[in-house]
Design a protein that fits this description.
Layout: H1 12-36, E1 39-40, H2 41-48, H3 52-65, E2 68-70, E3 86-89, E4 94-101, E5 105-112, E6 117-124, H4 133-148, E7 155-163, E8 166-168, E9 173-177, E10 182-185, H5 187-195, E11 199-203, H6 204-215, E12 223-229, E13 233-239, E14 242-243, H7 274-278, H8 280-289, H9 298-306, H10 310-334, E15 338-342, H11 344-348, H12 350-360, E16 368-370, H13 377-392
Parallel strand pairs: 4-7, 7-11, 12-15, 15-16
Antiparallel strand pairs: 1-3, 2-3, 4-5, 5-6, 8-9, 9-10, 12-13, 13-14
Helix pairs in contact: 1-2, 2-3, 4-5, 6-13, 9-10, 10-12
Bound molecules: zinc ion.
The site of zinc ion has 6 residues, from loops.
Length: about 400
């Protein structure tokens, strides 16, 4: 090509940059309403650094789409002071569905735009089909559709699907979940076909880091690490709203990170891997060996501890301390501003939280907090996948009436 050939004025590059900027600005404005609403448009302009005209345009667009509405005006406001009339999220129109697949059961849930869980249901994996993927996913889709039917006044925007293990959001696939025995399971395709809704898929550690950023204690932090300790142990890391994925979303697989002082043999052939050491199965086995519980339900250990069983307390505190050592390793490597931990003992017991913080050390102990969603963490994981998509690109939501669509704001 001759060097004199100037790029055409309609070059796709600036256009793409333009639409990226619009998407980012729209996301910032809607999240500002989520965090601060009811909030005046003039305040949003001040908080976001966007021009008042631009904020007004985005707000008009969101009002049209049914995402926000004007809240009751403060008494002193006159008609001419429209920028000072506060706007707030409109949580009366839309919901999202959430699906989370754990080893013993699937959770289906309905959430509103504030990330509040309106309803959730547990579907046990039992019978001869157990955790067979097609049966689990079809059951989840049917259970979710039935739950959404209980909210006839709301329009479901989509479904978020989350699971532990290795999940690839781009292809909508659970690539590998050894504890479920799943490989290359097309979760998006199966649930989408059955539920008739768009389905967004992500690993649950990343889903929960997004939930913390949007609705929890991660708000306002420039970097957040979420560590999930259940049967699966994994982590997700977000900096400046970007969640690290890695190729095929394999980032966050810390199952075989060696824990200092670990003694538990792992399937991989080594000893003291994080997941082998900390999984709820290991906790239950140790609790059975100590005569604390009979079955495989880790909540029984928590209940025994609450009832004053000192062996149960000891097992939970020791586990929290090991989690603390793992958090210490992750702090050294990634240095996040905030670490959020989801683990049953730390969620429910002050002595476990103290043991965790003690193991982390005095410098960073205060930056380590338990999950913001102790009562509905799995429902939140599923729903947050769909809500994150909405908050990242709110302009993608079609307006209620396309004819009254305002001009796209800049
Ligand atoms: Zn291992």
């Amino acid at each position: 090509m001759p060097r004199t050939a100037a790029p055409p004025l309609t070059s796709p590059v600036p256009r793409a940059a333009d639409s990226d900027r619009r998407r980012t600005n729209a996301s910032v404005v809607l999240r500002s309403v989520l965090e601060h609403g009811p909030v005046a448009r003039s305040t949003i302009s001040r908080l976001t650094g966007l021009s008042p005209a631009s904020v007004t345009d985005y707000c008009a667009r969101f009002t049209e789409a049914g995402l926000i509405r004007e809240a009751a005006a403060p008494r002193r406001s006159q008609g001419a002071g429209r920028p000072h009339v506060p706007v707030d999220l409109d949580d009366s129109r839309f919901v999202v569905g959430g699906v989370h697949v754990a080893v013993p059961y699937t959770t289906v849930a309905v959430l509103n735009l504030r990330g509040q869980v309106l309803a959730e249901r547990r579907l046990k994996h039992e019978g001869h089909e157990g955790t067979e993927p097609a049966s689990v996913l079809e059951c989840a889709a049917d259970g979710l559709v039935a739950l959404l039917d209980e909210f006839p006044g709301y329009r479901p925007l989509g479904v978020g699907f989350a699971a532990g293990g290795w999940v690839d959001g781009e292809t909508g696939t659970v690539v590998e979940h050894p504890l479920l025995g799943w490989r290359e399971v097309p979760a998006r395709q199966v649930i989408g076909a059955r539920a008739g809704l768009p389905v967004h898929v992500d690993g649950h550690a990343r889903a929960l880091v997004n939930a913390e950023r949007l609705f929890g204690r991660g708000r306002g932090s420039r970097s957040v690490l979420h560590l999930f300790v259940g049967n699966v142990v994994d982590a997700a890391f977000a900096t400046n709203d970007a969640v690290h994925h890695g190729p095929r979303s394999q980032a966050g697989a810390i199952a075989h990170l060696p824990v200092p002082g670990g003694t538990e043999p792992c399937d991989c052939g080594r000893t003291g891997c994080l997941q082998a050491e900390l999984s709820e199965r290991t906790l239950c086995r140790r609790a059975r060996a100590a005569g604390v519980i009979a079955g495989v339900n880790p909540m029984r250990v928590v209940a025994a501890a609450a009832g004053g069983d000192v062996r149960a307390v000891g097992l939970l505190v020791e586990r929290a301390r090991t989690v603390g050592r793992a958090v210490g390793l992750l702090l050294d490597v990634l240095n996040p501003e905030r670490v959020v931990v989801t683990e049953i003992g730390i969620i429910s017991r002050e002595d476990c939280l103290l043991a965790l913080r003690e193991a982390v050390g005095p410098n960073r102990a205060a930056d380590v907090v338990p999950t913001s969603f102790p009562d509905s963490v799995l429902a939140m994981a599923g729903g947050a996948v769909a809500l994150d998509v909405l908050y990242r690109d709110p302009l993608s939501l079609p307006c209620r009436d396309p004819l009254s669509l305002p001009a796209a704001p800049n």
